[in-house]
Amino acid sequence: MESDNVFISKNALCDLLGHSFENASAPLIWQSENGDILRVNAAACAYFGYSADEMTGMNAVKLCPDLDAEALKTEWREILRSGSISLCARHICADGGIKHAEIVKTLISTGEHKISLVTVENVSPLKQKTDEVQFLYGIMDMSSDAIFVIRAADGRVMYANDKACVSLGYTAEELKDMHLDAFRVHPAEWGSFTAYLNRLSAANVNMLYCVHRRKDGSCYPVETSLKTFVRDNEKYNIAVVRDISERLRFFTELEDKNTALEKLNDMLSAEVEERTKKLLFTEEKYETYVKNAPDPIFFTDESGRHRDVNGALCLITGYTKDELLAMDFFGLVAEESLSDAKSAFSDMLKTGRASVSLKLAKKNGEKFYIYLNTAEVEGGVYMGICKDVTRSVLLEEALKKLNEELAERVREEVALRQKQEGFLFEQKKLEDMGLLINAIAHQWRQPINALILYIQDIMDTYDSGELSREYIHTFETVCKDLIIHMSKTIDDFRTFFAPDKTKTHFDVASEIVKLMKLLRVQMHDRSINYRIYCICSGEMHDCTEAPVWGDCPEGRTTVYGYLDEFKQALMNIVYNAVDAIEEKMSGDDIKKGFIRIEIENMLRQVVLRIKDNGTGISPDRLPKVFDPYYTTKEEGKGTGIGLYMAKMVIEKHNGGRINAGNSEEGAVFEIVIPKFTD
Fold first, then answer.
1. Parallel, antiparallel, or unpaired for β 156-160 and 146-151?
2. In angstroms, what is the C-alpha Rg of the chain?
3. Main-chain phi, psi angles of 639, to 5 degrees
4. Measured distance CA(488)–CA(496) in Å, rounded
5. Cα dihedral 457/458/464/466 (nearest 10)
6. Going by C-beta distance under 8 Å and a sequence separation of 6 or more, which residues neighbour residue 537?
7. Which residues, including other chains, have CB under 8 Å from residue 125's CB and lie 6 or more apart?
8. Is there a contact between 169 and 258 (Cβ–Cβ < 8 Å)?
9. What is the DSSP secondary structure assignment for residue 417, as one 8-state letter?
10. How far apart are CA 35 and CA 68, in angstroms?
11. Model confidence over 319-345: pLDDT tens digits?
12. What is the pTM of this model?
């Protein structure tokens, strides 16, 4: 018996797919190869806040701030290769709001045409929720108390902050999912802590008290504040735990001291009567002390009037005792300190004591400085003890003036140092230009010799009667090529140090190829060869003669920075490599020198590695190679400014970084330069 076959027409199938597309709950988009939106469903319009007509024909770059034309091309190549891609993206909606989404782009073939079906899943709420949790964890990690998040259902630790890990001696990974009983000691094992913890528990109903055991086995008492919260229908406890070992130690010491104080109190009680009898005699003795004290002392009432003064106050102010008793304390205060004196007097009346530095005036008008301590000695009567600090104040003012002068000298020295460094930079630049001129001289020597030989040859050919039109044509072509080559060398040199005071886009690989061509003849004369390699998408290309870009899907190694400074820094590193190779060749360790330059093209940066087979850098010198004025060369052969300048140029001016190291053959310098900077 034959089975029945069900056939669906092509139109019916298209209608069915279109209906499914329009009524899908997830936002769906048909997108062309270059990112143009061909069709959207209702869910996509609701997600982005645009109408279908507004979105149709719009380019995906407008909706995604992290997307550009180059990224679209990269995505399309990956879709063609694998059939679909998944990625995370940010979207800008019609109202300007930012949404986070997970996107799946699937290849759809429609006859000869190919498009991608884009499925969008909004993950903004999940990201916000995750960010909030991470924010709370960050706050907990800054706490000085140990904090645990415990699942109430089984008593297991879900989270422990840094303080909790340090207190218990476990890592966060070890504490996660650990049961409380793994480090919480049973009350029966509290030992010497038992009595104190029971007393604390009885005194504070809002706290829990127990003992924790560290990973090393030692125990310590803790005070715990517990809060409960519910998340996703599951109950959790947040425990804020504080080590109270010091508090219990204080309780122990306090009990011992209380016992000692009780004994002492009995002894003191016996002495009270005897001391009371001696009180009158003591008061008379202290009155004698006050009168004969070397420091000025006065007694004043609540209005500021002097009730009594000693001889030292009379001596320092130049007034007699009767004159001082006829005036109040404010009469001694200089005008510039009157506000401070009144403020201190007000504090004294409120709190019973005050301290203040004041400037006073003597009877003859001379000014001096005192530090005053006042305290209430009996109801409404206050004693003031003055300390003459005139010498200290004058010394402090002199020191302040000296510090200001030193600060000015430091600023002048810094400015001078900066000027000297600028001069050294310019001097280094002129030195580098001299090296390039030397390289050009090497490049010109061969074509000039060739021109001389050709000129001599044409005369010999003429004399021998062999001069023909074909020979003249060959002579003209060769001479033109040699002259053009020499002219191009001049152009390369002229543009190499063209001043660039503003940042610009430049291609790292192209500039390196140009530089090495300028130095080629000079390096060849020194028996040094070089090769330049570009690494792109995991493949390596020989770019010694010119950059090779045909097989590179990521684009050129273009960066944004100061081209002139970059070339100068690069030349310093190359000449350092040449010097290291020549030093090694002078010892007959190698016969040929070699410099290998690798340029790796990455998504947001270009990585440049310069390797040589020279002497390398000894471990003790490696940390100092970028220090200013540090050089390993003989006296007169190096300033120590080249690598320092290279580091300044790469890191401070071009926003990159530079590192030095060693390989099996010699030194390695790695330079990382961002493609884009803010």
1. antiparallel
2. 44
3. -95, -15
4. 12
5. 120
6. 551, 552, 553, 554, 601
7. none
8. no
9. H
10. 10
11. 998 988 888 888 888 888 889 989 988
12. 0.36
